[in-house]
Amino acid sequence: MAKLKVLYTERQIQDRLRELAQQIGQDYQDRSITAVVVLKGALFFAADLLRLLPNPVSVQFVELKSYAGTESSGDVRIHYWQEEFQVGGRDVLIIEDILDTGITLDFLVRKVEQMGARSVRVCCLLEKPARRRVAVQAHYVGFILSDVFVVGYGLDYEERYRNLSYIAQLEDGPGPA
Ligand code: IMP
Ligand code: MG
Fold this sequence. Notes:
Strand content: 25-35%
Structural class: alpha/beta
Radius of gyration: 16 Å
Mean pLDDT: 90
Low-confidence stretches: 68-72
Number of domains: 1
Shape: globular
Strand order of the largest sheet: 4-3-2-5-6-7
Helix content: 10-25%
Bound molecules: inosinic acid, magnesium ion
CATH architecture: 3-Layer(aba) Sandwich
C-alpha cells in the first residue's frame, strides 16, 4: 500500500483558489473568459476555480498526452480535442494541473495562439520550477513544489488517487517524475 503524505489539505486548496479567483477577476475585469481545461488532471481544479470567478466564462476541454519519458525533447499529442473548439478572438485561460517540464503547456499555448486567440494566459494548480525544460510561464500558480511526485485533487499515479480532496506526496511511489 503506497504511503501518502498530505502536502495541501482541502481547506488550504480552497483558500488558495479564492485568492487566485480574486486575482483573475481583477486582471480580466468584466471580460469574458474562455477556459481551456486540460484533462484529466485539471478536472477538479477547474470545476472549483471557475465557480469562484465573477466573469462570464465558457469552458472547453482538451486532453493531451506527453511522451517525455525518453531524454528526447518530448512529444505532445492531442488525445481529445473538442470538435467545436473555438478560441479565435477570445481571451483564453488555460487551466492545467501541474507545470512540470513545461513541454505540455508550451505545446498548448502555441496551438491556442496559432488558432488566433486574442490573449492566452495559463493558470496552474501546481508548479515544479526545478524541472522546467521549456521556457513557459504560468500567470497564476496555486502552489510551488519541490521535485516531488504528488497525487490527489485531480493528479494521478497510474490513474489512481485523482479523487482525493487533498494533495499528497506519494512517498514510496515513482519518485520524481
Ligand atoms: P510537463 O509537460 O512535463 O509539464 O507535464 C505535465 C504533466 O505531467 C501534468 O499535466 C501531469 O499529468 C504530469 N505530472 C507531472 N508531475 C506530476 C506529479 O507530481 N504527479 C502527477 N502527475 C504529474
Ligand atoms: Mg495532466
